[in-house]
Write the structure tokens for this entry.
Amino acid sequence: MNLTIYDVIKRPLFTEKGHFIKERENKILLEVHPEANKIMIKRAVEELFKVKVEKVNIINTKGKLRRRGRYEGFSSGIKKAIVTLKPGEKLDFIEGA
């Protein structure tokens, strides 16, 4: 499947852990396409946000079991990427907040 750089990154994840690693370790947390690999993610972040990427780590999360009365199923799992920026690089999704 041919993915463009705009298909690879779905959205940034604003979580407590994501905020913590952004402030302390200069890393950003993103939700990415399930078929994206580390090379695609690195290229997409560098081209879209104009920053230099040092390393990319990927986390695949499974969907959780959900029940509604007698019906049950699984929520959809997501693929997350933790992108480490090179020293001196900075990326803010929400400026001034």
